[in-house]
Amino acid sequence: MKISKEVKTAILVLLGIILFIFGFNYLKGQNLFEPNTTYYTEFDYNALSQSSIVTVKGNQVGKVLDIVYDYNTGKTKVAFSVNKQLKFSKNSVIRLYETGLMGGNAIAIIVSKDGEAAKPGDVLKSEVEVGLITSLSKNFSGLSTDLNVTLKSTDTLIRSLNEIMIDESDDGLKKTISQLNTTLAAFKKLAESINGVVSQNDDNITTILNNFKTTSADLSEISAELKSANLGSSIESLNATLTNANTLLKGLNNGEGTMGKLLKDEALYKNLKGASKQMEDLIMDIKLHPKRYFRILSKKEIPYTAPVEPNLN
To answer: Is residue 245 assigned to a domain?
Structure first.
């Protein structure tokens, strides 16, 4: 079958149109052979361009398709496409951010799995991440003002230092340096004197150090002897003895046991005191009337009469 020139021309024209469309979209960053879905978002201003990339965690997953200014709302509406394999919910956020220090912007999808799944054509929430260059440009006036104040302060400080350095008055820096040199010279003489004293008493210092060494060795031997004498056991025995003594004294103080009762029983004390008094009267009566107690001396019974205590007044 022979194809006419007109048909060949039409086929070539169609192929050219197809190649032109494919090449144009390819230059825009779109691949017609990849299955993509389109979503929308809005920003207060436009910092993007068509074919700006769309990323998820730093990985490119799509491109910006179209940017349109909405005259009714005053916002910039952005259409972007992502690979159909990417799944996220309507609660995901589209973030506008700077891609580098030299400029350039892109949008990132902050994926959220919570809520209803996003469908092609949905309008998603957006936010703007302020970059370093944008922040510096916004605050450049304040930074320049602060820098100007800092430079003026530095200039004032340098001038003050220059005035101090070239001060020729009696209270100037030169006098202070001269006094410092005098002080350093005095310290030098003192150090030389100390060195002379040390040199003259070198033998004495050596003797003192030797004595200290001998004393240290003796103390070490004494410590070793105390350690071998089982001083710890002796101290433990002494602690046990003191504990028992404290327990005994505590019992006596509380009136426990025979000794405790003797110490704490007031009635027993009074009885002992009365018995002592009666014993004293008995001995006194024996001295005064021995015949009363010894019948061999007298057969007549002598009645007992209480001794009369002398009146000291």
So the answer is: no
